[in-house]
Task: structure prediction
Amino acid sequence: MLADRYNRRINYLRISLTDRCNLRCIYCMPPEGERKLRHRDILRYEELLRIARIAIKLGIRKIRLTGGEPLVRKGVDEFIPMLTALEGLDDVSLTTNGVYLKDNLEMLKDSGIKRINVSLDSLKRLNFKYITRFDYFNRVWEGIEKARDMGFYPIKLNIVIMKGINDNEVLDFGRLAMEQPYHIRFIECMPIGLQANCTAFMPNTEIEKALVDRFGPLVPVGPGKNDGPAKRFRFEGGKGEIGFISAISHSFCHECNRLRLTANGKLLPCLLSNTEVDLKDPIRRGYLDEDLIEIFLKAVEIKPRCHPLNSENYESVQRKMCSIGG
Ligand code: SAM
Result:
């Protein structure tokens, strides 16, 4: 069992498969995109599988694939089945923007993936286009509906609500949780990359109030084994769920169980700190598994008790969300 200095059990690894993305969400990337990693600096699939095997040996039981956009990486349809075939994992899941979801659902199902998170900041085609800079709402929505019809569960829809941009859709998302089995997750905007100042920040408390005023009380659900930091609720008679991930207004660091691996092989103990340890160079210099285990243990050892946002010497996060994977 992998545990840190504060007795938190570390059993969850989020792997960013690529820094490339096929959307340019206004709060995440500039229109021209970010400077891309060189291909040779991105971990190869066999390196990722080796890291996953070592992580499992150490006690990692859950892996989530993210990006950039994980489904744009060439060969992902061959990699995912190899990853899910590794012994010792209880859960492999995926976070995607949904643009290529429909085309990959059979592969995901055959690989044993049941849980999918789709980032969807708007239910309106034109607002979706404004936020993502691409007119892909219809194909994303088709992918979500097809996933539902194929029995994927839960399908979580992750939404970052920004004042003046999509805050007028809070009730539409609430209605969706009433009528459909989707798990709506409101994620508070974090001060990373383009959002260093979170100018459009909307606290989840305001969203919750608007939902309760319109649809009535939110009944707590859970906790379930895959809840993570979300506080989950259901409306009376609702088919879906509402969840709040409130990194800023309610820190959940005390229950953080995760490490993150960036596409270029940095292991990050905390999303909101600049601390990292490198795995790529040691792997390419021929380090043995025992040495890589030491590197993993070091990442766990330096995991901070809490994100440093409120500390006096806080240095803003240098990495962009698209390179960390959220
Ligand atoms: N392309 C995939 C997707 O769209 O889900 C995975 C990568 S994307 C960077 C992961 C998540 O990070 C998305 O749900 C996105 O909304 C979220 N995100 C990006 N910047 C953020 C910020 N500043 N605060 C909170 N969430 C953010």
Remarks:
- The two ends are 25 Å apart (CA to CA).
- The chain has ten helices and twelve strands.
- Residues 21, 27-28, 66-67, 69, 95-97, 119, 158, 160, 187, 189-190, 192, 195, 321-322, 325-326 surround S-adenosylmethionine (CB under 6 Å).
- The mean pLDDT is 93.
